[in-house]
Amino acid sequence: MICRVALADELRAAVRAYLAGRPDASWQDFARDVGIAGLLVPEKHGGAGCGAAEMAAVAEELGRVLSPHPFLQSAVMAASAASACGADELLEALAGGTSAAVVLPGDGSLRLDGDVLTGVVPYAMDGELVLAYAGGALVEAVPTARTQYVTMDESRPLQRLHFDHVPVRRLGDGAAWERVRDLGIAALAAEQVGGAQRCLDMAVSHAKSRHQFGRPIGSFQAIKHKLADLLLLVESARSAAGAAARDWVAAAVAGSYCTEAYLTVAGENIQVHGGIGITWEHPAHRYFKRATSDAQLFGPPHAHRARLAPYVLAPAPHSG
After folding, report:
1. Do 169 and 194 lie in a common domain?
2. Is residue 161 in a domain?
3. Which of 29, 86, 134, 245 has the fewest CB atoms within 10 Å around its CB?
4. pTM of the predicted model, to two decimals?
5. Domain-terminating residue out of 81, 98, 115
6. How many distinct structural domains can be found in the chain?
């Protein structure tokens, strides 16, 4: 366990340094220089063969700077989907920096007839390749048309995909889609923790430097209490995100809690900053936009709680 934690910390430091030194690096450069594109890909297929701890460390750093890199959809979801069905050639491409988006059941109105895919996906994350769960299978298909959206959160590109009787390449059965979704939720939760921590850091820094009535505003009790509440939210979200990859229950808990925590911290960061917090030049609004868009990515918080309801509210078994 100590070795895994140390590796995750080293990876976190490497990603942070790389993003600081090369903020405009392409996904292919990132894959070549740091290897995060193949983080979850087995070593025999050109990847790093890492696990949930390393995934969370990278995702947190990417969320901290609102990175547009397709780590969530490609390095986590697509790699996990390909691994589950033994698509070795695809795994090697992903590890080399090819990006891919995954369409989950329910994300659109897709119909698979034999080896032909038809339908529309209203909202999908960006990726060179498109992997779709349809008709009980995982397939790779080239969309007939892609429409890029002008989104509120420009750091997370979204697109509309249209498939008009498109031939597919079957990769395997679709039995693993729920696990792929839950790993996506876990990675998103770690991103949300990174963004929330950055918002808290900004709020604390401003509270120390901004003076009113001859004193830093951080010395006022109302600001102290607000920042203490935000710290509790961030640390609780970090705990939830750290366990999110364990199983579907932990993923649903993180999907609900981390989403609401990020929204709250991002909003309160703006409040602590006051007037400057709502200006276009200040980055606070960008984190609030990411928090807002994240809240819809795998469903809103109440959707995650709905998944938990049968588990939480199930009657306790009788003893003896």
Report:
1. no
2. yes
3. 86
4. 0.95
5. 98
6. 3
Question: Is 197 found in the same domain as 306?
Answer: yes
Closest residue by Cα to residue 230 from 204, 208, 248, 192: 204
* Cβ 162 vs Cβ 197: under 8 Å: no
- Kindly state the tokens that stand for 227: 């920042």
Cβ neighbours around 160 below 10 Å, total: 16
Domain hosting residue 168, numbered range? 99-175
Question: CB neighbours (10 Å) of residue 217?
Answer: 18
**Which DSSP string do the residues of 190-249 spell out, in sequence order?**
HHHHHHHHHHHHHHHHHHHH-EETTEEGGGSHHHHHHHHHHHHHHHHHHHHHHHTTS-HH
- Tell me, yes or no, whether 235 and 117 share the same domain: no
* Residue 60 one-letter amino acid: E
Tens-digit pLDDT profile for the chain (320 aa)?
Answer: 445 667 899 999 999 999 999 989 999 999 999 999 999 999 999 999 999 999 999 999 999 999 999 999 999 999 999 999 999 999 999 999 999 999 999 999 999 999 999 999 999 999 999 999 999 999 999 999 999 999 999 999 999 999 999 999 999 999 999 999 999 999 999 999 999 999 999 999 999 999 999 999 999 999 999 999 999 999 999 999 999 999 999 999 999 999 999 999 999 999 999 989 989 899 999 999 999 999 999 999 999 999 999 988 888 776 55
